[in-house]
Please model this.
Amino acid sequence: AKAYKAGSAVLSPAVADPIPVIGDWTEVMDKALPALDQLRPSDKETLVKALLATVMVDNRLAVAEMELLRVICCVIHVPLPMITGGKPGEN
Model:
């Protein structure tokens, strides 16, 4: 829940939607990725920042999280950002 809130806050700070219940997340993601690839570059940047906030909420990056982030960035045609720890956007 903490990771979901961290990512959601980057996307929409004023909205506090509850975590959706999803049965097969891979199917949902497969359907969403083509639409996400159509986002404007600035919106893709915000999306990647939200994903980073989600996976880095515990200040650790699991291999599975890194691989999923890498695949998403590849599919939406954005470079994988350098991950150095801290909040997204900080130097």
The two ends are 26 Å apart (CA to CA). The chain is about 55% helix and 0% strand. The chain has a mean pLDDT of 88. Residues 36 and 43 are 9 Å apart (CA to CA).
